[in-house]
Amino acid sequence: MFIQQIYTNCLAHAAYYIESGNEAAVIDPLRDYNQYAAIAEARGATIKYIFETHFHADFVSGHIDLAEKTGGVIVFGPGATPGYKAYIAEDGEVMHLGNTKLEVLHTPGHTVESICVLLYDEQGRKHAVFTGDTLFAGDVGRPDLMSGNHSKEELAAMLFDSLQTKLKTLPIDTLVYPGHGAGSACGKNISSRSFSTIEEEEDSNYAMKITDKDEFIKAVTADLPHVPGYFFTDAGINKNGYKPFDEVLASALVPMTMQQFIAQYNNGCTILDTRNPMVFATGCIPGAINIGLTGDFAVWVGTLIAPGTKLLLVAEPGKEKEAIERLARIGYESVQGCLQNGMADWLAADKYCDRITTYTGKECEALLDTTSYQLLDVRNRREVAKHRMIGATHIPLNELKLKMGTLDKHVNWLIYCAGGYRSMIAASLLRSGGFQHVASVEGGIQEILSTVPQLVEMPDNDTE
Fold it and tell me: PANTHER family per the record (predicted)?
């Protein structure tokens, strides 16, 4: 028996490849499906099943394309109503894979159709459970991401029952392989551990420890983080079907001349610059939004740019395909093309370049003493609760577009985050919104803490 976790950092997502006797199953594949088919081919195995633990909200799954390519059967749990060919398994149904078997456990709560997949070893013992978004290391799936007839409290009640009757009854040494890790918006505070055991979760997971249903409902529905705008769109795509991934790549990976690029921009397209933030700062196309491939690219695109927005890409040469693939993972299929040679073409045409000024920690100290710069903190509330720069205005990046109108366009804004990635996104958003005087702190508050800690305060309970 062979198990491989395929982890994608920018989405904090884990897919799984399971193999026994030259038959394989894949659980929750990403849109770029060829990577899973390649594993099976390299190992001389045939993909028999493709399990979807639920209709995912945070990414578009590769299940349909993978089934088309390999002949594997798409498997959902009870209550799923996909708009394409799939097998709807019953609760407790056993499916054979080579010399072992997989059991479908219906675990509603994160969504009504959520399942976990229990893997038996080749001696017939319960070995591991693939929990999707039902149970994470240190957390459980949030119950507010499903649009429909159920409130978050009703789903939380279902989740409590699922944990009590399906997962807490498993042997304590059963391995737990979750669908997400730290950083995913599908939970509140997921651990960085890539796997766990039932025993570890019963000992350390706040939700697994609670034995009273009402207390559980209050705990899992409290302090839920912001839901990225694309989540409900992706859930619909996963339920109803999508354009083949290869077609998306072919239609988007179109090199554009300067004339074509400018014509599309003048026609209302949004320029998305995916280069490193510090490179972007030295010269960029006016109005471009910088969301670098070096960070949580897909999540921030899905948070700040509306689904269906027509996009023009500026990327480091050779990185265009990666950007398009990562956009397609979250259902963004409206890329019109890429500037043929990136910023080199813009510079060669002697076009005007915008720039974002950046300052080091030491420079900030002198700057804040002698100029009228106003600080803007774009970190999330939990980060700000730990420390912030004295006198800073706080607007989390995921709320900046909505609250931009509350900021004075005539003020010199000095923006910071934890390390400089989000502050450059914020600076580009403000510039595109007509703010003339924006700058970013290199290295963010971590740089400030290490060089000029006197600029940082430990705030009281009020983190606004």
Answer: PERSULFIDE DIOXYGENASE ETHE1, PERSULFIDE DIOXYGENASE ETHE1, MITOCHONDRIAL
